[in-house]
Write a structure and sequence with these properties.
heterodimer, A: alpha/beta, 4-stranded mixed sheet, two-stranded parallel ribbon, 8 helices, 6 strands, 42% helix, B: mainly alpha
Chain lengths: 199, 196
C-alpha cells in the first residue's frame, strides 16, 4: 500500500509544466522578472536574446551552452530571469524580416542603459550608419566625440550587447579591411553581403 | 571546510617533519593556505545565483504536487502562481548555500495555508460551515484522503513525500518543532494507511 501511496503522491503532474509556462509569461509581461529570454534560430546560428522593461538588452551568438550564457547573465545583470518567447516577439519579428532581406531598420525599443557612457556614444553612432553602408573605427570614434579613440571604440564595438540590431558589422578598418567581429569574421561577411543584396 | 581541514593537516605535517623549524617555510605554507581559504570563502559568498528559470524548471513539478496535496487540484493553480511570484520577488535575497528546494516549498506551504485560511473565513461568512469533514469512504482517490487530513498532517505528508524535505526543513516550513513535525507525519500516514 505504501508503494501505491507514494507513487500516487509523486505521480506525473503535467499541469505543472503548463503552470510554470504561464507563470514565466506573466512574470515577463508584467516585468516582475528583470529579464525575459529566448533563443532565435538565425542563418548565422542560434542567437540568445533577452529584454527587460526598457527594451531589448541582450542579443548575441550563442556559441556556448545556454546554461553557461544564462549563468553569466544572471551574475552580470540580474538572477531574476525567466524564459518567455512571447516577450521577445517584437524583436523576433524584426529579425525574421531582416534575415529575409525585407527590413532595413530596426524599430523596437533597445535598452541603452546597460552600457557605459562612451560605449553608448559609440554604439549610437554605429546605429546611425544606414543599412548597406559602412563606416570606420575612426569614424564612429569621431562621432562619439573622441577622434583618437579608435582603439577604445573597437573595444566598445566588440562588447556590443546587441549584435546585428546595433550594426557593429558595418564598422570596418580605415584600410577597407574587415577589422574584427566578436561573432567571427564569417558572420560579419554574411551580414555585409546580405545588406549589399548579394545573397 | 575542507581547506581549513587541509590547513590543519599541513601544519601538523610541517611540525612532525621539523619543517616547522624554518620560520620562512611555515610562513609560506600559512600564507598560501590562508589565501586559498580566503579565496574559497570569497567564492562561496559571491557565487552568483542561477537564473530564476532554473528554479522554475527544477521545482515546479514538486511545488505543484505539494499544493495539489494541500489545497486540491483546483486551487493549486492560483497558489502555484502566488508561490513563484513571491519566490521571484524575494529571489535575490536567497542566501547562498541554502537549499532552493526547501526554500520554494516553504513558500508553497505558506501560500497553501493562506489559501486554507481564506477559504475557511469565506465559508464562515457565507454560513457554509457544514463542509464535508468526515473521513472519505475507504479506497477512494488518494487526493480525497489527503485532503481530509488536518492541515498540519497534510503539509507534513506533502513536504516529506513529495518535497523530500528533511524533518528539520519541514519543521522550519510549518513553524513547529522537529518532534511535532514527526508526530504530524506519523499521524497523517497512519490515517492514510487505514484508508487506502
Amino acid at each position: 500500500m505504501s508503494d501505491r501511496l507514494t507513487s500516487k503522491l509523486r505521480g506525473p503532474a503535467p499541469e505543472a509544466l503548463e503552470a510554470a509556462r504561464r507563470f514565466a509569461d506573466r512574470a515577463a509581461a508584467e516585468h516582475e522578472a528583470d529579464l525575459a529570454y529566448t533563443t532565435f534560430d538565425s542563418p548565422l546560428g542560434t542567437l540568445l536574446m533577452a529584454s527587460g522593461e526598457r527594451g531589448l538588452s541582450v542579443l548575441h551568438y550563442l556559441d556556448e551552452p545556454l546554461e553557461e550564457a544564462l549563468e553569466y547573465l544572471s551574475g552580470k545583470r540580474s538572477p531574476r530571469i525567466v524564459e518567455s518567447p512571447g516577450a521577445l516577439d517584437p524583436w523576433r519579428f524584426e529579425l525574421d524580416e531582416y534575415f529575409a532581406g525585407q527590413r532595413r531598420n530596426f524599430e523596437a525599443a533597445l535598452d541603452w542603459d546597460v552600457m557605459t557612457r562612451f560605449q553608448r556614444a559609440v554604439l549610437r553612432a554605429t546605429a546611425a550608419i544606414p543599412y548597406g553602408e559602412t563606416s570606420t573605427y575612426t569614424g564612429v570614434a569621431t562621432e562619439a566625440g573622441s577622434p583618437r579613440g579608435q582603439r577604445a571604440a573597437g573595444n566598445a564595438l566588440g562588447a556590443n550587447p546587441m549584435a546585428i540590431i546595433i550594426p557593429c558589422h558595418r564598422v570596418l578598418h580605415l584600410s577597407g579591411g574587415y577589422g574584427g567581429y566578436t561573432g567571427g569574421l564569417q558572420r560579419k561577411h554574411y551580414l555585409l553581403e546580405l545588406e549589399a543584396g548579394r545573397l | 571546510m575542507t581547506l581549513i581541514y587541509q590547513f590543519a593537516r599541513e601544519r601538523a605535517t610541517a611540525r612532525a617533519t621539523g619543517d616547522d623549524q624554518d620560520p620562512r617555510h611555515g610562513a609560506t605554507v600559512i600564507d598560501d593556505l590562508t589565501n586559498r581559504v580566503r579565496c574559497a570563502l570569497y567564492e562561496s559568498v559571491s557565487d552568483p545565483l542561477p537564473p530564476f528559470q532554473t528554479l522554475l524548471d527544477n521545482h515546479s513539478e514538486d511545488v505543484w504536487r505539494t499544493l495539489r496535496a494541500m489545497v486540491g487540484a483546483q486551487a493549486a493553480e492560483d497558489c502555484f502562481q502566488e508561490t513563484f511570484l513571491a519566490a521571484l520577488r524575494a529571489y535575490p535575497r536567497l542566501r547562498p548555500g541554502s537549499s532552493p528546494r526547501a526554500w520554494v516549498l516553504t513558500i508553497a506551504h505558506n501560500k497553501a495555508i493562506d489559501h486554507l485560511r481564506r477559504t475557511r473565513a469565506h465559508e464562515l461568512e457565507t454560513d457554509e460551515i457544514e463542509a464535508p469533514q468526515g473521513p472519505p469512504p475507504p479506497d477512494r482517490d488518494i487526493w480525497g484522503a489527503v485532503a481530509a487530513l488536518p492541515p498540519r498532517q497534510r503539509a507534513a505528508v506533502a513536504l516529506r513525500y513529495i518535497g523530500d524535505l528533511s524533518h528539520r526543513e519541514i519543521a522550519a516550513a510549518i513553524g513547529c518543532s522537529e518532534e511535532a513535525s514527526r508526530r504530524s507525519l506519523g499521524d497523517g500516514l497512519k490515517t492514510l494507511r487505514r484508508q487506502l
